[in-house]
Design brief:
The complex is a heterodimer of chains A (about 160) and B (about 180). Chain A is mainly alpha-helical. In chain A, about 65% of the residues lie in helices and about 0% in strands. Chain B has about 180 residues and is α/β, with parallel strands linked by helices. Chain B is about 40% helix and about 20% strand. Chain B is built from five helices and seven strands; from the N terminus they run H-E-E-E-H-E-H-E-H-E-E-H. Chain B has helices spanning about 1-20, 75-90, 100-110, 125-130, 160-170, and strands at about 40-45, 50-55, 65-70, 95-100, 120, 140, 150-155. The longest helix of chain B has 21 residues, at about 1-20. Classes of the chains: A mainly alpha (about 160), B alpha/beta (about 180). The interface of A and B includes residues 80 and 83 of A.
Chain lengths: ~160, ~180
């Protein structure tokens, strides 16, 4: 109805109405940066993927800033200054994120160390244990007893 | 005895982390602008597009920005509380009409009442981006030095007014009964 008319009017009135496919190189750069940013409305999507109004607006901002010659780092800074570090998919290296980045490796190190110590301790304890002469004798009798019983009638081994 | 305690201890530590983490709301992204100067903006007034209103016009006063739009249902819900905030908080409230059609916005105000000291039209939403707005409504409290002191995400609630916004306005020393003549 009136939508088509206004759309046609807009296309005539705004000569630039930049087609998103006019410059594929620029678009590729926009998407590359947009994929580093979290959409705060649909929080599991990147700004590249999200259909939210805010994502559309921010992609426009990225495109504008790229045409102005800003770098990826500057654009990401711009976003983080206004929306906070949460908007960046790759958290910055800061005092508050050191645990996040290094934590898994630190935990892995702790786990391996504990495992190594455990193995070493167990190996030492195995070496230390020896049978006493009485236990050796008992073991021999048990083994002889079962050997004899398996060939003849089943008699319990004499302790 | 010690060996049985260790897994229990680890478990309790995990429970602690989960207890805190699961009670947090991921939709409430803390504002990166708290403690930073209010973004300098100058936008056409909603009531008269030929006139501009700038953040600078409120310098030296404690004031509040309420981001709203006529297409936003929660904004309609919070409107009585905006009135409350104006009445009890004593600070002027400026409306940032976000990504809206001025005619619709004016009609909305006529229908619901206009407690705002001024409204500005942010049709493209560019000023909203400067404020880190990611949803409507949002409310910001700004002190006399022009520094953002508080951001409330989502519609105002009686608890938010009572526990956060009104105390902040009181601390900052907004005058009671409307804008000072200075």
């Amino acid at each position: 109805m009136s939508c088509a008319a206004t759309l046609a009017a807009a296309q005539v009135a705004s000569p630039q109405a930049p087609s998103t496919f006019a410059d594929p190189v620029l678009e590729a750069r926009v998407l590359a940066i947009a994929e580093e940013l979290r959409c705060l409305v649909c929080q599991n999507e990147t700004i590249a993927a999200s259909h939210a109004d805010l994502a559309v607006d921010l992609r426009k901002q990225i495109r504008t800033k790229l045409t102005q010659g800003q770098s990826q780092a500057q654009i990401l800074d711009f976003m983080a200054e206004r929306y906070g570090d949460f908007v960046l998919y790759r958290p910055r290296w800061k005092a508050s994120t050191v645990m996040l980045w290094a934590g898994p490796f630190a935990l892995l190190l702790v786990a391996f160390t504990a495992l190594a110590m455990n193995i070493r301790r167990r190996r030492q304890s195995v070496v230390k244990t020896e049978l006493t002469p009485a236990e050796i004798e008992r073991a021999r009798r048990l083994l002889d007893g079962t050997a004899a019983a398996s060939s003849a009638t089943r008699t319990p081994p004499t302790p | 005895m010690k060996r049985y305690l260790l897994p229990l201890l680890v478990f309790l530590v995990l429970v602690g982390f989960f207890a805190v983490g699961l009670n947090l709301n991921p939709r409430e992204v803390p504002s990166a602008l708290i403690g930073k100067p209010v973004p300098a903006f100058s936008l056409p007034r909603l009531d008269d597009a030929s006139q501009k209103f700038a953040a600078e016009d409120m310098k030296g006063k404690v004031w509040v920005i309420n981001v709203w739009a006529s297409w936003c249902a929660p904004c309609r819900q919070e409107h009585p509380l905006v009135n409350e905030m104006v009445k009890l908080g004593g600070a002027p409230v400026v409306g940032l009409n976000y990504k809206d059609k001025p005619e619709n916005a004016r009609a909305w105000l006529t229908e619901l009442g206009n407690p705002f000291v001024a409204n500005v039209s942010d049709i493209e939403g560019l000023v909203g981006i400067e404020f880190g707005v990611y949803g409507v409504p949002e409310t910001f409290v700004i002190d006399q030095a022009g520094v953002i002191r508080l951001k409330h995400i989502g519609p105002l609630t009686p608890e938010a007014l009572r526990d956060k916004i009104l105390p902040m306005l009181k601390t900052l020393g907004g005058t009671l009964g409307g804008t000072p003549s200075a």
